[in-house]
Amino acid sequence: MQQGEVLDGRYRLDEWLGRGGFGVVWKATDRRLDREVAVKLLLAEHAADREAVGRFVREARTAGGLSNPHIVTVYDYGLVTTAAGGTHYLVLELVRGRALSDILKDGAPDQEAALKWMRQVCKALDAAHRSGVVHRDIKPENVMVDAGGKAKVLDFGIARLLTQSAVLTSTGSVVGTVPYLAPECWSGAAVDGRADLYALGVMLYELCTGRRPFRASSAAEYMYKHLEETPPRVRSTDPALADLVAGLLAKRPADRPATAAEVLERLRRIRPGVLRPDDPSPEQLRRRADQAWRRGAQGAPGEAVEMLTALIPDLARICGPADPRTLRTCHDLALWLAQDGSPGAAVALLRELAAEPTAEPDVRADALRDLDRWHREAARSGPGRPRALSLAGLLGGGPQGG
Fold this sequence. Notes:
Layout (H helix, E strand, L loop, with lengths): L5 E2 L3 E9 L3 E8 L4 E8 L7 H15 L9 E9 L2 E9 L3 E3 H5 L6 H20 L2 E2 L8 E4 L4 E3 L6 E2 L21 H4 L6 H17 L9 H10 L10 H10 L11 H9 L13 H16 L3 H18 L5 H16 L3 H13 L5 H21 L9 H6 L6
Helix pairs in contact: 3-5, 3-8, 5-7, 9-10, 9-11, 10-11, 11-12, 11-13, 12-13
C-alpha cells in the first residue's frame, strides 16, 4: 500500500514508520474519529501463512483485552479483501518516542531512567499475567519510550494463555527472540510469567551494562548459554540491584521472583548507580578508609585528613551520600581534623553530621557525642587552623580547601 491510501474506507496512511519480520507500520489518521493512530499491516508474503495470520489475530485479541497505561492500546483489527488478496491490519495507539533498542544504541542510559522504565514494564507484565497472558517476547524492540519518558509494552503477537504450553512453530523454531529466551522456552516445557521475568532480567542487565548477559553467533550457542552459563554479576552501587538481576536470570523458574509485582516492589527499593569498569568496589573503598585511619593512628593525622578528603566523594558517588559507610567516613575525617590542629573545623563538620536528616540515628548520635567533646576543646584552646570543609561539598565531590 502507498502513502495517502485509505484503508478500509477509514484509515489514511500518512507516513511509513518501519518494518518488522511480519509487518509494516504506518502513522495514519482515523478519519472517523479524527485522531492519529499507528496501523500495522501484515506483509503480503505472509498473507497465506497460517502462523503469521494467527499471530496477527492473536495480538489483536490479546492486547485488545488488556487495559494498562504501560501497554500499547489496540483499537481495531480488520481484513481488507482486494483483487490481489487479503490485507490484515491492526490499528494501535500511536506512541511518539523511541524503542528501547534504539536508546540502547547510544550506550547504557541513565540508570534512574532505566529503573523507571523497568518498573513500568513490570506494571504492564503484572496486568498481563493477572489476566492470564504471558507475553513471550519481551525485549527492547517491544518497549517504546514516549516523549514524556513513559515506557509502553507492545507486540503481543506470540502471547499465550498461562494455561497453554510453549510450543515449537511448524518449522521447528522456538517461539520468541533467542537472546531473551528463558531456559524453559528452549525445551517446549510449560511456560508461565516467569519466562517474561527472565527476559526482563536480560533487558535490565543490558540497560545497566550496555550489553546483554550472553553473546553468541547462533541460536544453538545462545541455547547453550541460557541453559548452562551464569553471566558476570552487574557491578552496582546497590547490591540489591545485582541480586535482583541474578535472581531474574536464574535457570530454574522456581528460583526467580514469583511475580512481576514482586519485581516491581524490589525495583522501587533500589538506589540507582552502576560502577564503571575502572571504579573501585565498596569493599576497596572501605579498605582505603581503613588505611587512612591507620596512618592517623600511626601519628600522621594530616595524611589521614588528605586521604579521607579525597576518598569521601568516591564513597558518596559509589555507595551513596546517605550510606552509613559514607557518613561514618565523614565522621572519621572530623576526628582526624581535630587531631591535626583544627578542632573548629571538626566541630563544624560534626555539627552538620548531627543535623543530617538522611543519616541513621546511631550515626547522628555518635556525631553528637564527639561534637560535645570537641566543642569544649575548641572553646578551651581555640579553633585552630581553619579548613574550608563542608558536608555538602564533600558529598557532592566539589572542591575543598586545605
